[in-house]
Structures are given as structure tokens and as C-alpha cells.
């Protein structure tokens, strides 16, 4: 029987490096049992869908095709592929959900109350990816409200990151010296039930009128230390082409702004938005980067692959942000499948977030040790580009704090003792610790 990853780590041997007389550092042969300890920790790797490696990308999946036939038989390809149609036809009523999904009682109760702090809304496209029968399906859990949203647990808060305290003018969060978060819109294509900004998203507080956006632009213009602007919301890609073009143009016109970023989940929940017209606009404002909010490998459909290709071909560096969610993506095979698919889409896994303690989030939050285990299960076991930084966004406005599995074991006269990805311990002859050094 294969050992679990945890058991492998616990049983790992020490590989000793000794300084022998008249020799530099030398590595002993690994103990004969090492092969046992080098086993890949992934007991059940999730296969890559065939379309990822196919020469021609199919337009969609059989699952989405069947969903469309069943619930939207009259809707043309042109309508389905039009992001405005997707936005207008978001599923939000309890009645419509009941037609499409076998709802559990907690889901029915939550829907009848209109969700917790966040509105409810899912694009027909994203709804086509949900399992109509299984309420525990990861994607369904992230977007269909559940009664647990209404429970308040100790340590939770509506604004756990204290963003409001770092907001000098409406729409701007200025936490770090050289960069700001610019909240430009409170609408999303699909609402995630664990959203950190539940307190503002979908409540009509951040409306993208030019007057309101000018307040944020004016603040950025008046503060020459701001070299980096992260445009977020809500989702900035739900703005019209014209508004986005104007906003990016205004920001690019500020001489000290060197770098623009867009934080979005739209390429995942409404990939139809990534069309030629949008890409033409975005290309005008380089250097422009994009952080895409991915949650689970099942989100990586042909539609999403195509959207990411268009963005990457337009020269936009793509990174991903993923929230660690209990029962959704909190295991190594799922996260490994996600990062591998992201790499194939030219999306660099960037951050893995510990879920923020927002009000009503206890059913989504894992222990921090789960995130560390996942990083241990990726680091060394897969491509370095595929390992995101695991962070806690510190409650009370402390900013992002990275967490790493502990690789420092200790030190001796010869150097530092460091744990490898396989769990073996190695001595690095650190010059500052060498005998006789000052
Ligand atoms: S897309 Fe982002 S802002 Fe919108 S609900 Fe999801 S997490 Fe919140």
C-alpha cells in the first residue's frame, strides 16, 4: 500500500553531509530505503482533459452542450456567446434555480432569503458546469448559497481586512506605500459565496459613474508615490468596453503610474467577455497584467482555455489567485491539477489565499496547516512555476503575510540543516557559519 504524503514526511530519513578531513562538503549515499521515501505524494492524479492537448480546441464540452439543449433550446450560438446576453440572463431567482438543480433544504432556505450579505447571480455558462444532483460538487458549493452563510462565528467580521480604514477616498484602498487598489465597480458576473468584499459587492455602493471614478483618479494623480494600480471591484471586466477604455486611458495618462493590473474572475465565469474588441482595448495600455481568480480545475474548460489564449497572445502576463476552500480545493491532487492546467493556459499560479474570516464563512475555512500541506505537496513535486505563494491577508489591515512549510531544521558547526522536498535533511555550508569567520 502506498504511504500517504504525511506519513512519508514523518518517516523521512536524515541524509547527512559531513565535512571530512581535507575535503569539502560531501554527500553520503542516500540510505537504501530512500526510494520508498521519494514516492510522489499524489495517490490519485486527476487526468488532464483531452482537449488541453488536442490540436484543435473544441468549442465547448458535452456537459455545457447538454445544458444548453435542455434549458436554452431557443438561444442561438450568437446570443450564448455574447457576454451581454450572459449578464442579462444570470440565474438569481429561487424558482429558476429549482428548475435547474435539485436543491437541498439549506440551499432552498438561503435562496428564499436572497443569500447572505452577497446577492445571488450565476451566468448561464457557469451554471452549465454545476452538478444538478450533487450539492457537494465543488463548483456548486462556491456559487449556490447555503444556509451556513447566515451563521456568524467568533473572529469573523464584515470587513476582516479593515480595508475601509485604509480608504482615503471612496473606491481607493491605499495600504502599501507604492500601490493602490482601485474598486471601480461592485457588479460581478457570478457571485462567489466566500467573497472578501461581500460588504460592498452587489450593494450599489461602487457605481462606475465617471464622477465617482474621477474621485479615485484624482487621488492617484495627487500621490506621485503610486506606481502600481490594481483595478478590481466587483469585477472590472463587467464594465462596458467604452468605460474600461476611458478608465485605462486616464490611468495610463498619469505619468507616475508605471504598471496596471486587473483583478478579475470574468475569464472563468464568463469567458465570452474576452472577445476581440476587449483584447484590442487592453493591448493599448501595456504594461498591463491580469490576476485571474481560479478555484478548481473543473473551471478550465475549452471556453476558458480560449479566453486565456487570447489574453496571453495579446501580451498580457496572466497570474492566478485562488482561495483555499474546505471541501472544494483543499487537497493536493485538486490543487496540483489546477496549477498544471493553469500553466498550460499560460497562467502563472500566483497566490493561494487562506480564506478570510468574513461573516458567514466558517463552512469554507480550513486550518492553516492544510494550506502548508498543499504547498509541501507541490514544492519540488511539480514545476516551480506551478507553486503559488500561500498567504494570509492579515486581519486588521496587516497586508499579505506569506507562509512556507518549514525547511529550516537547525544548524551545527558546519552549516545550516535544511529539509528537502522529500523530507531528507541536508547540510549547507553557510559561509557566515564557517569556523573562523567573523
Ligand atoms: S468575482 Fe471576486 S469580487 Fe466578485 S464575488 Fe467573486 S470574489 Fe467577490
SSE layout and pairing:
Blueprint: H1 5-10, E1 17-19, E2 25-27, H2 34-37, H3 62-71, H4 77-80, H5 83-88, H6 94-100, H7 105-112, H8 124-127, H9 138-143, E3 172-173, E4 179-185, H10 210-222, E5 228-233, H11 241-252, E6 259-264, H12 266-269, H13 276-283, E7 288-293, H14 302-313, E8 318-324, H15 332-344, E9 347-354, H16 368-378, E10 389-394, E11 399-403, E12 408-412, E13 415-419, E14 425-428
Iron/sulfur cluster binds at residues 188, 191-192, 195, 197, 201, 233-235, 265, 293.
Quick recap:
The chain is an alpha/beta fold. The protein is built from 16 helices and 14 strands.
Structure description:
The structure is a single chain. With 438 residues, the chain is α/β, with parallel strands linked by helices. Among the domains are: 5-39 and 411-433, no CATH class; 61-150, no CATH class. Helices cover 29% and strands 17% of the residues. The chain is built from 16 helices and 14 strands. Strands 3-4-5-6-7-8-9-10-11 form a nine-stranded mixed sheet. Strand 9 (347-354), helix 16 (368-378) and strand 10 form a beta-alpha-beta unit. Helix 11 (241-252) runs parallel beside helix 13 (276-283). The longest helix has 13 residues, at 210-222. It is globular and about 75 Å long. 37% of the residues are buried. Residues 1-38 have low confidence and may be disordered. Bound molecules: iron/sulfur cluster. Residues 188, 191-192, 195, 197, 201, 233-235, 265, 293 line the site of iron/sulfur cluster.
